[in-house]
Amino acid sequence: MGDSGSYNNLPTILSVLALVIGIVAVIMAAVSVSQKETNNFIIGGGDKGGAEGAQSDGMNDDDRIWVIAIGHAADGTEYIDEISGQIKGFDIDMVNAVCRIAGKNCRFSADVFNRCWDSQIGETQRGGVGLYAGYYDACTGWLHTYVRDRTFQFTDPFSTVKATEVGFFVKPGNPGNFTYRDIRGKKIGFLDGYLNDEVCVARQDNIQGVPIPPENVIHYPTHEQLAAGIHNGEVDAGFNFAYYKSDLVEIIPGFRAQCALAGQSMMMREDNTLWEWWNPAFAKLRASAEYKRICRDLLEQHGHVPGPSPDEHCFDNK
Fold it and tell me: Using one digit for the tens of pLDDT, what is the confidence trace for 206-218?
């Protein structure tokens, strides 16, 4: 008779069990979606370099995962592919190749640029929380500047500085008659966190009105938003890379400046050892036909996105 009560309660027990299973299923589904939407993704598992690829040095003597920060500059070096939703570009190809040659297990972590380098209007430029707090080992594709070189260390550059010349952009036809020679009282737009900033403008000796007062400095997160701000009259002019192309703006002739000390590199904290394996692996890559292929792909695979040309961006691209 004692078991008869268990049988009577069986529907209730089964209902509770079904509820528990349902809750677990919902949690697992949420975790699965969260994992699919994470910004972290493994690199190095696709293209193996082909017949012309430099060979691995067999340096994978540990199980460490090297975490590499990547942004999306919205040019041929880093951009979000509209079909796959993945970040693609020259920088991705470069890191993939170097990590493979070095035999290292690398992982990209997509993040905003100011977690690598923080440049706020009217404040001293400083390293970003991502590097300082150890979110990742290095940030990809950062150019050397005086302030950055005093703050972080860099690998050997993997690009030239020819593509980093900058200039002033205005609305087509220059309806405001903007001149770079005198920017007193003018609002100037800049890309947030980029080296072509108000500090670089202040170093130019042929411009009146520098340093620019903080109230006349406007930062934008992307090239497109800067171009829109210029076109819509939010700013009188923008300071951007000379290679940038948009129907919304045109570059002022007669002025070019260079804000970089050296080309794109991996930027890391002083106590990080990524450079120890990166530099010899990149040297091996640069000496191979694979480097030239990666440079060609800047035009052939990524050329549908505006950006620097292989001749501007790459070493020995002949």
Answer: 899 999 999 999 9
